[in-house]
Amino acid sequence: ELAYPERLNCVTEFVDRHVAEGRGGRTAILAPDGTNWTYAGLAAEINRIANVLTGALGLVPGNRVLLRAPNNPTMVAAYLAVIKAGGIVVATMPLLRARELGQIVDKAEIALALCDDRLTDELTKTAAGSRFLKRVVTFSELKTLAADASADFAPVDTARDDVCLFGFTSGTTGEPKCTMHFHRDLLAICDAYALNVLKPGPDDRFIGSPPLAFTFGLGGLVLFPFRVGASTVLVEKASPGDLLPAIATFKPTICFTAPTAYRAMIPLLGDHDWRSLRKCVSAGEALPKATFDAWQAATGLKLMDGIGATEMLHIFISAPEEAIRPGATGRPVPGYEAKVIGADGEDLPPGTPGRLAVRGPTGCRYLADERQRKYVVGGWNVTGDTYVQDEDGYFWYQARNDDMIVSAGYNIAGPEVEAALLAHPAVAEAGVVGQPDPERGMIVKAYVVPKPEVTVTPALVVELQAFVKDEIAPYKYPRDIAFVPQLPRTETGKLQRFALRERAAREAGAGHSPDTA
Ligand code: 3UK
Choosing a second label site near 45 at 20 to 30 A (CA), which of 24, 237, 370, 461? Predict the structure, then answer.
């Protein structure tokens, strides 16, 4: 049971407690620009900004504040300052454009934004046409104001069930959905997932790529380290090619990134000293077994897969290192329940694929009442994922519900075919979708990024097809394979299957694509 006092401002627990208990001199945040903030230093930065927010910027408890910045120390200080001042953080992905920012501003009714100076263009456009957004404060303005503010600030007396952040789902299609999280949720993800599964200690140092606007990054790069008084390394550029040099420089012990990023780092490992790493967490999309195996072969480390969602704030199915089953996501994190259900909401027995439903201390609460009634039944959040549970309670990912390919009456999960292709030494990345076909309804179409040293030939197509037939049930093999230089991905590392589906639909009827003819 996770019990928190009724009056609770979570920033007290994440930062002030360390200072009060004599750990103020320990390192909290490091960054490539030379930042080296202790917990006491971080507390002072937060307090100055909180004073600016409640003073010059007129923030009152319950106000929403939009944040827009790459992962850097000011972003973290601003994030925690809004919460300490009783406000609600709405962090946005750096690549969002004016129109998308406008949808968020309207839904969350945001009047104030704090924005990194390099990212103001799109937000200024949003503000110009918005009836809600009144003020965009740049980080440099904020720092100027904060320089004159007091470094003391008493946390606003919030309830543990007061909302402190709105999470907008990354939504590969359609409008972003807003989910709400309480002060206690930010602690609960640490005390459920991190404490029981990741098990970090005060001497750990965290690093990773997910933007802080993605709750995977917020947990992994801010909340988990701060809960235990550990340190975090914030890097603005975190492609696989940027992350490895940062690892060599800062010697972190725990890394958070997406499965494809781990895969992309493998060939580069030889050029960098990555050996400080002890634990590597993979989430955002399914971790193919081939990637797990390749990472383990290259580093000796077991990737810790975990499925999380913005709705639940963080990871709710995973496994501690000693209980990992390669290829499975894991078992429900202590405190969470998960089940596989059928079309009528009935529980399905082990071995039967169905929709994943989850319930736990951190959600799910949609801002839109209508959505809440439709998607959250008896506290259970029905995800968009197809899973199978085995006899031992491990959950095996199949696909997003809408990524099932129905071909000649067979149900084929795109990710399973991708996982099979990834086991072939010529394949760097693979995306598999259905392509409309007059005879079969759909055929399995694979988009393959070959490894750099590979020469693409018609023989390779035949070889990959035979390889897949050997790895999984033969009817699942890709009848068409196209080689591409890269795959479309979201900022959260997810494959944009809808973009591949659109492309496949265009290519359908054109006969076999020229690349494979
Ligand atoms: C997919 C996975 C298989 C799945 C997230 C960790 O991804 C996060 O949140 P989002 O709201 O997306 C949720 C959806 O992403 N997914 C995530 N992890 C896995 N599928 N295996 C996985 N390990 O479709 C899920 O419904 O963007 C992840 C922590 C916090 C997060 N917000």
Answer: 237
The answer to the question of residue 403 being in a domain is: no
Q: What is the pLDDT of residues 100-149, one digit of tens each?
A: 999 999 999 999 999 999 999 999 999 998 999 999 999 999 999 999 99
Q: Kindly give the distance from the C-alpha atom of residue 490 to the centroid of ligand 1, in angstroms, as a whole number.
A: 12
Q: What is the CATH number of the domain that holds 121?
A: 3.40.50.12780
> Which of 155, 81, 93, 99 has its CA nearest to residue 119?
93
DSSP three-state, residue 356:
strand
CB distance 384 to 169 below 8 Å: no
Kindly state whether residue 401 falls inside one of the protein's structural domains.
Answer: no
CA 467, distance to chain mean position in Å, is 32
Which of 282, 285, 312, 366 for a ligand 1 pocket mutation test, highest count of atoms within 8 Å of Cβ? 285
For residue 334, the model assigns a pLDDT of: 98
Q: Which residue has the tokens 């009836």?
A: 131
Average pLDDT, the chain: 95
Residues 74 and 49: their CA atoms lie apart, in Å, by: 10
Co-location of 351 and 448 in the same domain: no
**For the chain, what is the domain count?**
2
Which band of pLDDT confidence, cut at 50, 70 and 90, is reported for residue 173?
low
Model pLDDT, residue 516: 43
Taking CB atoms and a 6 Å cutoff, what residues make up the pocket around ligand 1?
169-170, 215-216, 283-287, 305-310, 314-315, 329, 383-385, 397, 400, 492
Does some domain include residue 305? yes
Which 3 state secondary structure label does DSSP give 388? strand
Question: Does 255 sit behind a cis peptide bond, omega within 30 degrees of 0 on the bond before it?
Answer: no
- CB-hemisphere CA count at 13 Å for 414? 28
Question: Are residues 370 and 431 part of one domain?
Answer: no
Query: Are residues 318 and 459 part of one domain?
Result: no
The length of the chain in residues reads 517
Cα 33–Cα 35–Cα 36 angle in degrees, nearest 5: 145
- How many A from CA of 265 to the centre of ligand 1? 21
Q: Which atom of ligand 1 is nearest to the CA of 169?
A: 11
Q: Are residues 146 and 204 in the same domain?
A: yes
User: Which atom of ligand 1 approaches the CA of 170 most closely?
Assistant: 27
Q: How many other C-beta atoms are found inside a 10 Å radius of the C-beta of residue 198?
A: 24
Using CA atoms, how far apart are residues 277 and 265, in angstroms rounded to an integer? 13
Distance (Å) of CA 188 to CA 128, 304, 401: 38, 19, 28
Domain that includes residue 497, residue range: 408-516
